[in-house]
Fold each of these.
Amino acid sequence: MRSLPQISEAEFEVMKVVWNHAPINTNEVTEKLTRTTQWKPKTIQTLLKRLVQKGAVTYEKQGRVFVYTPLVREDEYVNHESDSFLNRYYDGNIVSMVSAYLDSDHLTDQDIASLNKLLSERNKKEGS
């Protein structure tokens, strides 16, 4: 598995915009993020520069604007971070994680029903 860049929470918010709208220029990223955050345009530009330096996105200059494209796939990054979380806090044991959520009443009846459905579908798929 290739090494993925470390992305801060703020950088992750920028990445979500890039993943959802790529190719996307600086002005479009700024416009989308100023609607959902309190960030100034300069902050967003700094976050974009950091993501370029980390190898998470690349850019192409088109006229007077920079157009950004992700170098890291969203599913790849989310899976990596999920595995990292599971390993760090639950020694890689998903049963321990789910048990902790059940014990602390973080899962609603609807959540439990959804998990049961997922597991049932998975069992049917594996049984085919």
Amino acid sequence: MSETIEFDVLKTAEAWAADGRRVALATVVETWGSAPRPTGSHLVIDSDGNFEGSVSGGCVEGAVVAEAADIIEAGEPRMLEFGVADETAWRVGLSCGGRIRVYVERVN
């Protein structure tokens, strides 16, 4: 993912928060194997489930968006882990192998 795209995602988070939307930011903090996004990749999510960016090229975005709703409501950050050894691997699409850790935090 290019720096421009990452910058745009962070600008989106800032704009959504300025508009009064409740927002969470998901950041890839660790990958192993065939994870399609590098560490530092971002996904911004609002409380209505709208999102911009990517943390896995589509493999785990749905699960991250669902968790973000709880994180936005509770205000407690959470580390999410997905991988082929994890029981959620087949459900979220990492069946090709690999592992990804995503940190999700409310930003406003």
Amino acid sequence: MGSTTSSAGGRTFSRRWILGAGATTLLTTGLPGLTACGSGSGAGGGDGGTITAFVYGDDAVKVQEAGVARFNKSAAAKEAGGTVKLEKVPGSDYSPKLRTAMGSPSAPDVFFNWGGGSIRAYEEAGKLLDLTDTINNDPVLKDGFLPSVLAAGDLKGRHYGIPMRGMQPVILFYNKSVFAEHKLEPPTTWDQLLDINAKLKRANITPFALGGSDIWPELMWLEYLVDRLGGPEVFQRIQDGDAEGWGDPAVLKAAEMVKELVDDGAFGDKFTSVSYVNGGAPAVFARGRAAMHLMGSWEYSTQLGKFPDFAKQHLGWAAFPEVEGGTGDVRNVVGNPTNYWSVNSRTPNKDLAIAFLKDAASEAYAKDLIDLGDVPTTSNAAQLLDSAPNPEYAKFQYDMVQQAPAFTLSWDQALGELGTPMHTEIGKLFAGKSSPTEFVAACKELKK
């Protein structure tokens, strides 16, 4: 169990970090080739008998390999008149290879992506099949996935992807031993969180671990605070291309709350030199030097691999608290809803591609994800989670996402090429190099 989960944690995290570091930029900039081959006879240049699916070639690919093998033997494949060929692309090569392929006659018919900003350029170039009507008219696809996850990969309210990997919500982790020793409970409101911070600092314990040198862990704080203050509509406006959305009062208030946390020592005084990537932040947390850690769901797998005793005995988890006076629903979630299959609009066999997408909603596919340590986003997954490496943790994640009215995609992934300059402004805010007002003004200048 340990090795499987650790492996899952490693590749889940690396997938998040690679994209956060700017892989979406490769997908959304410098794409003249995307408009050069629009009149081609079909994706892959085939006759429709076999279609090609590009997939990110990490440890989780074994689930997609099994899915393709199962589908190719199915009645659905025979009825659609073809089979699927899976092409595994190494992680570091995935984004540039997909970008190049999508502007050529050998483009994949179906391809793995992160939703949101990662596929915007393809949609704008007419390279994506709009799946909205297909999903709405097909019970398997319409009812097969958690609604918040299905919607999270959308572009302007239209479906261009089908969920095909596990969920990755951002969770408030805490050290159960530290909390028990100091008679604390996980905070359900922001005021409670601030009160806990004060008690921990009096005990010379840093309230929160934070890998500030990577910057993307800092982003999680703004994502949740903006959502709790103003609801998902605030960022949705920004994601849809309206840079003036950064001027929403919820963004300024969230930035002010971040500054208050930093100034109050909630992250200690060295967090800007601590990294998550090299294991620094997880170690600070596991060794009791910090009592809490706001991080993606892969934190459990990371801790199980690096500090198994801590993960099994002392690691607790909770939802991000309510912010008093905010209009966002406390059940809302932020993070990486999942990864998606999208379909090339030029595929010569649309029926085959759609039939293949349905396999991602199957119980067999969900079981394979669970065996790998992932939590599926299918609507029928709850009854299967008893076989997860940690059923309690898996059910917490699933219930959290199932009950969420909205699941906001990580801002850097949703914004594509603007994610990197946004990271720069977030880093300056947390490091005290810009004020909340300056942060808002700078973000309003982030335009294509």
